[in-house]
Structures are given as C-alpha cells and as structure tokens.
C-alpha cells in the first residue's frame, strides 16, 4: 500500500504550518518553494507525474541526491541547502504524525544532518560611510524625497526590508511621541520611536505620495505608484551606495544592502553604550544569541576593551 503525497499537501500548508506551528507567511512561502523544487526533481528522476508521486518515492537516498543537486547544479550555498532541508524535515514530521506506519521512513529523512556553514562576519557601515550614503541623496527630486524617508526609516529602526515593504500608513504615528509599528518574523509586532528628522522626511514624502490605486495603504511606493518590493529597495540602496563610493572609497569594498543598514543600526546602538538585551529587543530578535554576533565583530569595542587591560611588564 502506498500513500499519495497529494493527500498531505493541503493540510500541511493550510493548517499545520500556519496554525499548529505558527509560521509566518514568508516562511511558509519559502517552505512551499522547497517542496515544489523537490517534487519536480523526484518526478523527473523517476519519470512520474508530480501529481502521482507517493510518499514512498521520497526516500532518504532521493532526498540526499536532491540536496547534492541544489549545491552542484543550482549553485546554492550550504545555508540555502539547509533551509530547503528544514522544509523537507517539517513535511515528514507532519506525515509521521498522521501516518505512523511511515514512521521509519520519516525518521531516516529527519535524521539527515544540516551541513556545517562558515561563520561569515556581517558588513556594516562606519559613521562616515553612512553619512556619505545619505549625502548621495537628492531631496530636490520626487524619488529623492521618498528615498530619504526610506533610508532614514531603515537606519532609525533597524527594520528588516520585509517589515518596511509591508508597512502600512496606519502603522505610523507622526505626532506627539512619534513611532512606527513594525510587523516582524512570526507576525510579532514591535514599536520603535522615530527621530524628528525621520518624521520630517516621512511627512515630506507623504505630501507627494501618489498611489496608482487609491486603496493602496503601503507606505512606500515605486515610480509607478505600486507598493515597492524588496528588490526595489535593494536596487535603490545599491544605487546610492555606488554614488557614495566616489566620495567615500571604503564603500567600494562593501556590498551595501537593506540588511547592511540593519547591521549598521545594531552596531551603532551598541557603540552608544546600550545594553545588548535592549538592542536585541529593538531589532526584534527572538534569540539574544543572534545579537551577540555584533559584539564579536566590532573592532572598536575590542580596542577599548584591550586598552583597559594593562599589558605585562617586558624585561629589557
């Protein structure tokens, strides 16, 4: 007796992931892509239609072949491989809960280990590099007004690019104690206060914000009046980073992305003497160990630490 994969897919994506595990829509979309890739891979390998695949077709050997395919044929990094494997593990955890007779097969696949990845230092901007990036903006143009508000908000809050893309007008409070309500991973909300400079830049942008459809509530729009995408924001920041590199040569050796600004916010908050627990809360980290990476890379902090330590006397 075989078990059709089709019988598990709907409840896996519509109930198990969002309701039982409480995963965000972005994570579910990532899992969906991973499952789509392996289903297409297996169907091609065994010459069987995707909609006719059985659970028994996804053996441990087939999954390992798929993971090798990701790295060798598609050029995926070990990190991406591990993300795909996490999705497959989750699917078989769900199958094991509903079909105990498949427990042995599920255990084999869930036992496939994650690949060790290199520890990569995060890139961030020094104060002069950040200033050069802001100086590259031209607030005298329509897109310049938007981009100034965008970059200031990213640096002010340390927000993820997904949080800025999904930010709606009703998530802003620009009078009194100005603040923004960000929706992060796992649909967790956090509020960040705003500098007067950020409030001023957003107000300037709102005066000329022109959505293509009146009901569009996303704060930031592209040149066509549609909600801006993650790739659109990445393009904007990359453009200004290239321009700023002419005035600040050290920027040319860095890949400046929206996440670089998030790292920059974290580093500057820590350098200002803020407690690491507060910085973790500010960034919306679920685990404070994620924030510890910034302590590891800041040479200025390390230099201050060593200067407070007296070296031993060296005999002439």
Quick overview:
The chain has 316 residues and is mainly alpha-helical.
Report on the structure:
With 316 residues, the protein is mostly helical. It folds into two domains: 6-110, DNA polymerase, domain 1 (Orthogonal Bundle), CATH 1.10.150; 127-305, hpI Integrase, Chain A (Orthogonal Bundle), CATH 1.10.443. Helix content is 56%, strand content 4%. The chain contains 14 helices and three strands. A three-stranded antiparallel β-sheet has the order 1-2-3, with no helix packed on it. A hairpin with a 5-residue loop joins strand 2 (179-183) and strand 3. Helix 4 (78-98) runs antiparallel to helix 5 (103-110), helix 6 packs across helix 10 (230-244) and helix 11 packs antiparallel against helix 12. The longest helix is centred in the first third of the chain and has 22 residues, at 25-46. The relative contact order is 0.09.
Give me some keywords for this one.
mainly alpha, hpI Integrase, Chain A, 56% helix, 316 residues
Q: What is the approximate shape? A: globular
Low-confidence stretches: none
* String of helices and strands: HHHHHHHHEEEHHHHHH
Number of domains: 2
* The level-1 CATH class of the largest domain: Mainly Alpha
First and last CA, distance:
84 Å
- Average pLDDT rating: 89
Give the helix tally: 14
Residue share in helices?
55-70%
Q: Please give the order of strands in the largest beta sheet.
A: 1-2-3
Oligomer state equals: single chain
Please indicate the percent range of residues in DSSP E strands (runs of 2 or more): under 5%
């Amino acid at each position: 007796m075989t078990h059709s994969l089709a019988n598990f897919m709907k409840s896996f994506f519509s109930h198990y992931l969002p309701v039982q595990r409480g995963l965000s829509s972005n994570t579910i979309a990532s899992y969906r892509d991973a499952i789509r890739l392996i289903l297409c891979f297996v169907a091609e390998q065994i010459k069987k239609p995707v909609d006719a695949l059985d659970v028994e077709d996804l053996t441990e050997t087939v999954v390992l072949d798929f993971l090798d395919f990701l790295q060798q044929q598609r050029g995926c990094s070990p990190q991406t491989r591990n993300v795909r494997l996490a999705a497959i593990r989750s699917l078989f955890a769900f199958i094991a809960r509903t079909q105990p007779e498949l427990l042995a097969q599920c255990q084999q696949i869930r036992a496939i280990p994650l690949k060790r990845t290199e520890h990569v230092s995060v890139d961030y901007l020094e104060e002069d590099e950040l200033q050069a990036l802001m100086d590259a903006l031209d607030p005298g143009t329509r897109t310049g007004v938007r981009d100034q508000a965008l970059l200031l908000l990213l640096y002010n809050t340390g927000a993820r690019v997904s949080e800025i893309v999904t930010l709606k007008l009703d998530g802003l409070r620009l009078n009194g104690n100005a603040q923004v309500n960000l929706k992060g991973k796992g649909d967790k909300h956090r509020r960040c206060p705003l500098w007067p400079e950020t409030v001023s830049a957003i107000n300037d942008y709102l005066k000329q914000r022109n959505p293509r459809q009146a009901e569009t509530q996303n704060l930031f729009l592209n040149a066509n009046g549609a909600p801006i995408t993650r790739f659109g924001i990445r393009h904007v920041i990359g453009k200004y980073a290239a321009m700023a590199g002419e005035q600040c040569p050290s920027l040319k050796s860095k890949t400046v992305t929206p996440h670089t600004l998030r790292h920059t916010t974290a580093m500057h908050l820590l350098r200002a003497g803020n407690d690491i627990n507060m910085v973790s809360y500010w960034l919306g980290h679920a685990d404070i160990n994620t924030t510890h990476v910034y302590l590891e890379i800041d040479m200025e902090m390390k230099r201050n630490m060593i200067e407070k330590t007296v070296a031993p006397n060296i005999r002439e």
